[in-house]
Specification:
Structural class of chain B: alpha/beta
Strand order of the largest sheet of chain A: 2-1-3-4-5
CATH topology of chain A: Rossmann fold
Strand content of chain B: 5-15%
Shape of chain A: globular
CATH class of chain A: Alpha Beta
Order of helices and strands of chain A: EHEHEHEHEH
Number of helices of chain B: 11
Distance between the termini of chain B: 37 Å
Largest interface: A-B, 20 and 20 residues
Radius of gyration of chain A: 13 Å
Radius of gyration of chain B: 19 Å
CATH topology of the largest domain in chain B: Rossmann fold
Number of strands of chain B: 7
Oligomer: heterodimer
Number of domains of chain B: 2
Number of strands of chain A: 5
Number of domains of chain A: 1
CATH superfamily of chain A: Response regulator
CATH architecture of the largest domain in chain B: 3-Layer(aba) Sandwich
Strand content of chain A: 15-25%
Largest sheet of chain B: 7 strands, mixed
Strand order of the largest sheet of chain B: 1-3-2-4-5-6-7
Number of helices of chain A: 5
Distance between the termini of chain A: 19 Å
Helix content of chain A: 25-40%
Largest sheet of chain A: 5 strands, parallel
Chain lengths: 135, 230
C-alpha cells in the first residue's frame, strides 16, 4: 500500500537531546509530517503514535535496540524501522536486519543514505538500499 | 582524514574563515559517526559565535594544524580506548586549542583521565544543545567545564584522599610506566617494552614521582600495588 507522504508519522527514539533536532529535521525533510520524539518503544507508545517510520538513533543503546526492533515489528508489521548505530559490527547489523529492521546505518553512512532510508519509509516503498532487510 | 560538512552553511575552509570571519570561535569536530558529526555541526550553526572549520573522523595532527581551531570537540566514544594517545594527538595538532571531550560515560575516573591528558571540558552526551553551546563557550573563554554529576564524584574522592597523592592523577601512559616499574623493569627495559625513547621514559618517571610525591622506585611500586594496577 502506498501512503501519502504528508500523512506519514515518525517515532524518533533518541536519548541524546543534542541529536534530536538533527534527526527531527531529517525526518521532516523526508516527508514525515508528524515527528514524535520519545525515549520509549513500548507497545503503549507504538499504539498511541501509530508510526509509519521508527528511527532509533545512535544515542539509544540503553533502549536495547534489538528488543525494540522485534517489539516494533510485532506491533506494527508495516512500519519502517531505521536504526543508526555507533558501531559498524557486521554481525550486529545482520542480527538487527534479521529481527526486523529495514535499514541499519553505521558510523560511515552519511546523510544521503539516511535520507534514502527515511524517504522509503515516508512513501511506503522500500528502496534498494545496500543495507536493507532482505528477508 | 578531514571531510567537509557539505551542505552546512557554517562550514568553510579554515583559510577563508581567517580572512572573512575574524572573531568567530573556530571549532573542529572529531567524531567517528558521520551523522553525529553533522548533528553537532548543526547545533553550532545555530549560534553566530561559532564556525565549524573542519570535521575529522579521528585526531589527525595535520588536519588539526591546518584548521587552526580555537576549540576541538572530540567524541571519545568512537575513538580508540587509549585516552592519552587520542587526546595527545589533539594537543599535538592544535596546541593552542581548548579541548572539549564528549562522552556517554558518567564516570569521574574517565573525566579525571581526560583532564590529565589535556582536556578542558568533560561533557556527558545527554546534554541539551543549548547547554552544550554554553559549555563550549565557557571553555573557549578560558575556564573549564565538567559535568556536575561526575564532578561530584571527583570532589568526593579528593576529599577522601585529603591531600594524599592520588594515583588517578596519573595519565594512562604514566600508569603504564608505573606498572612496569612495579614489575621491576629498568628505564631502558621500559623504553623497549613501550617503544619509547629512554629519555621519554625518564620524563614519565619524573612526572610520576612528582605526582605521587615520592623519590624512589620502591615507593612507586608500593603505590602501584596499593592501587591494584599490578
Amino acid at each position: 500500500m502506498t501512503r501519502e507522504p504528508a500523512a506519514a508519522r515518525a517515532l524518533l527514539v533518541e536519548r541524546q537531546p543534542a541529536l534530536v533536532p538533527f534527526f527531527r529535521d531529517t525526518l521532516e525533510r523526508a516527508g514525515h509530517a508528524d515527528v514524535i520524539a520519545s525515549r520509549s518503544t513500548s507497545a503503549t507508545t507504538l499504539r498511541r503514535v501509530r508510526p509509519d517510520t521508527v528511527l532509533i538513533g545512535p544515542g539509544s543503546a540503553d533502549v536495547r535496540p534489538l528488543a525494540a526492533i522485534r517489539r516494533i515489528r510485532q506491533e506494527r508489521p508495516s512500519t519502517r524501522i531505521v536504526v543508526v548505530a555507533y558501531r559498524a559490527d557486521p554481525v550486529w547489523r545482520s542480527v538487527a536486519l534479521a529481527v526486523g529492521a529495514d535499514a541499519v546505518l553505521g558510523p560511515d553512512d552519511d546523510r544521503s543514505t539516511l535520507d534514502a532510508a527515511l524517504a522509503s519509509g515516508a512513501s511506503g516503498r522500500v528502496r534498494n538500499l545496500g543495507m536493507r532487510r532482505t528477508s | 582524514m578531514a571531510t567537509r560538512l557539505d551542505g552546512l552553511p557554517t562550514y568553510v575552509a579554515a583559510e577563508s574563515v581567517t580572512s572573512m570571519r575574524e572573531g568567530l570561535l573556530r571549532v573542529v569536530i572529531i567524531e567517528s559517526q558521520v551523522l553525529f558529526a553533522k548533528a553537532l555541526a548543526g547545533i553550532f550553526s545555530e549560534d553566530a559565535e561559532f564556525v565549524v572549520v573542519s570535521d575529522l573522523r579521528a585526531p589527525d595532527e595535520s588536519g588539526l594544524s591546518a584548521a587552526k581551531p580555537h576549540v576541538v570537540v572530540i567524541d571519545l566514544d568512537g575513538q580508540p580506548t587509549d585516552v592519552a594517545a587520542t587526546l595527545g594527538a589533539c594537543v599535538a595538532g592544535a596546541p593552542d586549542a581548548r579541548i572539549c571531550v564528549l562522552s556517554m560515560h558518567l564516570s569521574s575516573e574517565m573525566m579525571q583521565r581526560c583532564l590529565n591528558n589535556g582536556a578542558e571540558a568533560y561533557i556527558v552526551k545527554d546534554i541539551s544543545p543549548s547547554e552544550l553551546l554554553r559549555a563550549i563557550k565557557t571553555v573557549a573563554g578560558g575556564q573549564s567545564y565538567v559535568d556536575p554529576r561526575v564532578a561530584g564524584g571527583l570532589l568526593r574522592r579528593r576529599s577522601l584522599n585529603a591531600g594524599k597523592p592520588d594515583i588517578m592523577e596519573l595519565s594512562a601512559r604514566e600508569a603504564e610506566v608505573l606498572k612496569l616499574i612495579a614489575e621491576g623493569l629498568a628505564n631502558k627495559q621500559i623504553s623497549v617494552r613501550l617503544h619509547l625513547s629512554e629519555k621519554t621514559v625518564k620524563n614519565h618517571v619524573s612526572r610520576i614521582f612528582s605526582k605521587l610525591n615520592i623519590s624512589a622506585r620502591t615507593q612507586a611500586a608500593v603505590h602501584a600495588i596499593r592501587a591494584g594496577i599490578v
